[in-house]
Amino acid sequence: MLNVTPSAFPASGSQQRAAAGGRSKVPLKPGRSLMDWIRLTKSGKDLTGLKGRLIEVTEDELSKHNKKEDCWICIRGFVYNVTPYMEYHPGGEDELMKAAGTDGTDLFDQVHRWVNYESMLKECLVGRMAVKPIAALKGVLPEKRVLASSAKDLSPSYDWFQTDSLITIVIYTKQKDMNADLVIVDCQDKQLRGEIIMDDHSYLVEVDLDHAVSEDVAVNIAEKVGKVEIILNKKDNIHWKMLGQPCEGHNTFIKRTDRGLFYRKCKLVSKTEVTHDTKLFCLMLPKGTHLRVPTGQHIYLKHIIAGTEVVKPYTPVLPFLPLDFQEPPCHDGVHLYLMIKIYSHGLFTQALDHLQIGDCISVSNPEGNFKKSQVQTSEDLLLLAGGTGFTPMVKLLNFALTEVSCLRTVKLIFFNKTEDDILWRNQLEQLALKDERFEVQFILSQPSKDWVGKQGKISPSLLSEFVKRSRRDSKVLICICGPTPFTEQGVQYLKDLGYSQEEIHAFTA
After folding, report:
1. Among positive and negative, which fits the CA dihedral 325, 331, 333, 337?
2. Over the range 464-497, which residues count as b (16 or more CB within 10 Å of their CB) and which as e?
3. Distance CA 330, CA 319 (A)
4. Are 115 and 135 in contact (CB under 8 A)?
5. Would the pTM count as exceeding 0.85?
6. Is pLDDT at 342 greater than 60 in this prediction?
7. Is residue 5 very low, low, confident or very high in pLDDT (cuts 50, 70, 90)?
8. How far apart are alpha carbons 491 and 95 in whole angstroms?
9. What pLDDT, on a 0 to 100 scale, did the predictor assign at position 256?
10. Rounded CA gap, 302 and 310, in Å?
11. Contact 85, 71 (CB under 8 A)
12. Lowest mean pLDDT among 45-54, 355-364, 440-449
């Protein structure tokens, strides 16, 4: 039997993919929900067809299992028999079949890299891929080492020094325009983890500290020269001979997609009703954590349900829409606010709703590739939101109206089913009265007879009516977020209306 120890999930980071063409969900048959799948995996039924044996799988053997009734897929060196999972897959059988009998790692990463496949498919594990011998050419370095060597001069570095009471870790990023959003620090139980985000790469300092420090952590940033200081308070005024023992990923500069997401436990502080089925959750970061979620990015919540880790992405919002165009005082870097719709049959959202004040839930590092510069170089900002697809628009609205002077128009077209579903309607209407640049248009698909506004679903005719440039040649950015069909259709309609891919940013998961 193989000694199989899969790497801890997630093996790599992820994002709420900012691209058109996200994964479409398909209707599942009754009895094929996530909870039904969890029950099946715990039933004791042999889901691999190997009666509990683990085997080494050659490429030739893997390729033979490429049919719906016999489907094996390799992800990160481990092979799973996904045949029994076919009917439970939210993306449908066809999506799984794209990787049937092959290494599906790249395809998996493109679509839903954040999903905890190791927990979901642990009872389907067939074994490990057999290692192929590599015939290296004499005198030729492997490609990875060549790349690392060529990038060496651009890599960040760190140093540390101490006083009687302080430890200061200095990270030289060698990058201008460094800011607090790009620095993530966690210091608990003598373990320090500092991650610096630089475009699609990240630099990590991670050590088991030589001595105890207090929970108070300070982060100073010299933005123009790219220097980051992490300042720790010693618990005892003694001289440290070394900073500590390096952890596995210490002093590495790699692509973010190759670095595992880091989670910390956050405490639920409050739950406030927003609409009949949506609540505003306030989570408190642990002491010793410095984390800010940049505009247009999201985090993942991880929770164990019936013994299985379930992970879902959410975009943090502000606690309210400020009308005086200043960051609200309670947005203090200590709390995260999440606006979450509670589905009556939603396994994950029901579990969240049952959390009690003081309970903890795991929260990941921020993810996403939206850049503020996309707004800063635009003259018209048009936001298309469907339901809770409104959440990425909250910080975006605040940023656009407070910090971007070149914008002539900011328009939100907000699609919902009924009036009761409209999130923060009063705040949005007040904001429209406060700032003449901002306009909001509510569109309902199931309005009451008293509704006097626009009605319908996203369509070319509705978009052609509301999505317009303030001038013929004005630079426009159109952001869209909502259920997958809404987003995919919206992107296609916008392209049909003559907007380019560069003018469209879709938030999809």
Report:
1. negative
2. eeebebeeeeeebbbbbbbbbebbbbbbebbeee
3. 8
4. no
5. no
6. yes
7. very low
8. 21
9. 87
10. 6
11. no
12. 45-54
